[in-house]
Amino acid sequence: MDHIATLVTKVQEDRAEERLMTLFGDAGLKPSGELRRLSDRAVEADVGSVGVDEIDAFRKALSTQSADAALLPAAARRKRLLVCDMDSTIIEQECLDELADFADLKAEISAITDRAMRGELNFEEALTNRVAMLKGLPKTAIEECYNSRISLTPGARTLVATMVSQGAKCLLVSGGFTAFTSRVAQAAGFDEHYANTLLDDGEVLTGNVKDPILGREAKLTRLVEAADALGIQPFDTLAMGDGANDLAMIDTAGLGIAFRAKPIVAAGADAAIDHTDLETALYYQGFREEEFVTP
Fold first, then answer.
1. Which terminus of the chain has fewer Cβ atoms in its 10 Å neighbourhood, N or C?
2. What is the CA radius of gyration of the chain?
3. Active site (catalytic) residues
4. Residue 257's closest CA among 50, 78, 20, 83?
C-alpha cells in the first residue's frame, strides 16, 4: 500500500524539507516523488509501498526531532467522521482536576486522573471515586470553573470547521461531563457531544455520576454507531485522544491520533501530535493551509 510522509513544525520552517529528508535517511526510506509544501510549516512526500518495519523505523527516527510527522496510507486520506476526546485534547485542561481545585482537592484528584489515563486504574472506578470526593461542592462551581479555567487547544476551531466544510461529521466524546462538553462543543463547533452527567440536588453535587458511565467501550460504540449512520466504514474515520480510555476508538478508526498522549496511547496510535497544534491533524489528511477554515 502506498504511503505519504508528512512533517509539521511548530512555526514557519525554511528547513522543513531538509528535516523530512533527514527522517527518510534515518529510517532508510526514500521519497518516490518531489516534496510538496502544504504551508510554511508543513511538507509531505509520497513514499510508495512500505511495511511495518519501515513505519517503525520512521517513528524511531522521529523521536530525535522536535517536530511532528506521520507515515500514513495514501488512500482515503480525508476522513468523513471525526471523534475527539475533550480533556487534554480539544481543551488544554482536565475538567475534573480543575473542578477539584474549587474543593481544594486538585492534587489528590489529579494524581488519580493521571494513573487512570495511563491505564493503571479502571476508568469507571477511578471516575466514581473522584466524583465522590466532590460531594457537597456548590453546583455554581461548574460554571465558574468553565469560565475561569477552561481553554480550547490551539487549532481546535480550525480542525473542526475545516472538516465540517468538507462534509465530515464531528463528535466530541468524553469521559468527562456534559456540563463541560455542552459548552466546549458549542465553542469548538462540534455537531454533537457525549459525556457523563454529574448529579446534583439543585444546589450541590451529590458525589454521584449518572449511570451508565461513558468510558472506553462507550467511546468506541459512539464511533461505530456514527459511522454506521453515515454509511461509512471505520477506515473513513478519525479518532483522537490522549488517555487509555481513548485506545479502543483510536485503534478502530482509520486514522487514530495520539495527542500529547500517555505512552500506552502513543504506542497504539497510527500517528501522534506532540509538538504542534491540532491543525496538524488536517495536514496528516493532506489539507493545504489555503483550505483551512478559521471561524
1. N
2. 20
3. 85, 87
4. 83
State the DSSP code for 64.
T
Contact 170, 190 (CB under 8 A): yes
Let me know: does 283 contact 18? Beta carbons within 8 Å.
Answer: no
Buried b (16+ CB within 10 A) or exposed e, 75-92: eeeebbbbbbbbbbbbbe
CA-angle at 83, arms to 71 and 124, nearest 5°? 110
What is the spatial order of strands in the sheet that 192-196 belongs to? 192-196, 169-177, 81-84, 237-241, 255-259, 271-273
- Per the structure block, which three cell numbers stand in for 74? 495514501
In this structure, are residues 265 and 244 in contact, taking their beta carbons and an 8 Å threshold?
yes
- Is the preceding peptide bond at 138 cis, omega within 30 degrees of 0? no
pLDDT in tens, 141-167: 999 999 999 999 999 999 999 999 999
Q: Find the helix or strand (DSSP H, E) in which 264 lies.
A: helix 263-268
The pTM assigned to this predicted structure is 0.96
Q: What is the mean pLDDT of the chain?
A: 95
